[in-house]
Amino acid sequence: MKESIIKDKSMSFAIRVVRCYKYLVEEKHEFTLSKQMLRCGTSIGANIKEALRGQSRPDFIAKMNISLKEASECEYWIELLTNTEYLPQDSAQSLLEDCQELIKILTSIVKSANGK
After folding, report:
1. Mean pLDDT of 77-91
2. How many domains does the chain have?
3. Smallest Cα–Cα separation from 98: which of 35, 15, 31?
4. Is residue 116 part of a domain?
5. Which of 38, 46, 76, 87 could form a disulfide with 21 if both were Cys (CB 3.0 to 4.6 A apart)?
């Protein structure tokens, strides 16, 4: 159940990140920070997809941990883009909340998989 939820939520989040990136590049002419956010924001779902096809439990755990790290990094870039006023507070808050939700779910998955 969690695997399906995390897969769907990470895809929805990646789509939002891509749209945000397009906005930042086209409207704000910001290329560096937004590229960092795009990279890690889309990497979350890609690593989850790899984890779900993992060859072993350790492989699954490793890929889910990478997804968690990418989500944490993405949270940083969203906060930085907001604090530097590239992203409007209202839209950034929604994106940040989605990112934090992914972090919570991934943390739960990693803890469960590790038997903690």
Report:
1. 96
2. 1
3. 15
4. no
5. 38
Q: What is the DSSP string of 85-115?
A: TSS-HHHHHHHHHHHHHHHHHHHHHHHHHTT
**Cα(4)–Cα(10) distance, integer angstroms:** 10
Q: What angle do CA 67, 105, 90 make, to 5 degrees?
A: 90
- Average pLDDT score over residue span 52-81: 96
In the prediction, which pLDDT does 116 show?
A: 64
The answer to whether 44 touches 51, Cβ cutoff 8 Å, is: no
Average pLDDT, integer, range 103-114? 96
Identify residue 3 by its one-letter amino acid code.
Answer: E
Look at residues 9, 75, 67, 63 and name the one whose alpha carbon lies nearest to residue 37: 75
Give me the domain span that covers residue 24. Answer: 2-111
Residue 4: the pLDDT is 86
The predicted pLDDT at position 24 comes to: 98
* CA angle, residues 64, 66, 69, in degrees to nearest 5: 115
Which of 7, 112, 8, 103 minimizes the C-alpha distance to 57? 112
